[in-house]
Amino acid sequence: MNNQLIQRIHDHMHSFSKGQKLIARYIEEHYDKVAFMTASKLGATVGVSESTVVRFATEIGYNGYPGLQQAMQEMIRSRLTTVQRLEITAGNIPERKLLEAVMNQDIDMIRRSLDEISKDEFYRAADAVVNARHVYILGARSSLPLANFLAYYFKLIFDSVQLINSTSEAEIFEQMIHLSPEDAVIGISFPRYSRKAVKAMRFASDRGASTVAITDSALSPMAEAATYLLRARSDIASIVDSLVAPLSVINAFIVTVAIKKKEEVHENLQNLERIWDEYGVYEKVDEKGLDSIR
After folding, report:
1. Is the pTM of this model over 0.90?
2. What is the pLDDT along the chain (294 residues), one digit of tens a residue?
């Protein structure tokens, strides 16, 4: 668990009330469960009021209970197995409330990501990618769909974009063999972090390339080798990684880069529209038919 959190608890143990000492002991023994409990549920579990839980969090230096909970979540998320994730969700969210709980969680992740991401770093990262000779994109495991999405749109913008096949570490390094300081590498990974993605980012950094990490925290191993860190909150919804906020950040990044290269993008899209129309790539929709459906 978070050593800083443990130290805070120990430093204040002498001043805790009887109820706060119960909370402290329960956190030390069951921090993996507490990380996903509401303040009221933690209070009910240890036999104290919700207000006692909130005062406990404030007394050890957090901005209320959400700050304490966040500290625990950040430290354990990368260690949780899929089985543990499933058990936590089943124990904390009633089955008939799952739709609202998951969607509200996603909304909260986007709001928190917008508050926490460095706007200056976001735009400097966009400039670095715009000026790169070659853009490499890497995302492994659950982050692979995000990498595919980013690569699809970047290939409409840039002449030279490579989506790295992350099947094996050897393949990753082989695909990045020509990497130079003129290039940019965008790595995407969230808990549990991909070891291959982390090694690829370190390789890119050692080669002097501009590296953009899209990950959840400055404590992420992806951030260590990043020239630019784009933080996006992710969270756990059962065995599923909630990647709505990262996708939103990626959407904003694509739009920003496209606007910075507006003239080239405009020409590329015009050519693509002609090709798509000539070869019937998209099904034509009868607007009258749509009106009748409406």
Report:
1. no
2. 445 777 788 888 888 889 999 998 888 888 777 877 888 989 999 999 999 999 999 988 888 888 888 777 766 665 666 666 666 666 666 677 778 878 887 888 899 899 989 999 999 999 999 999 999 999 988 899 999 999 999 998 888 999 998 777 888 899 999 999 999 999 999 877 888 999 999 999 999 999 999 998 887 899 999 999 999 988 655 556 778 999 999 999 999 999 999 888 888 888 888 888 888 888 776 666 555 555
Show the tokens assigned to 44.
């009910």
Note every long-range contact of 257-262, with CB atoms under 8 Å and residues 24 or more positions apart, other chains counting. Answer: 257/126, 257/129, 257/130, 257/154, 257/157, 258/153, 258/157, 260/126, 260/127, 260/130, 261/130, 261/157, 261/158
**Encoded tokens for 160:** 């030279």
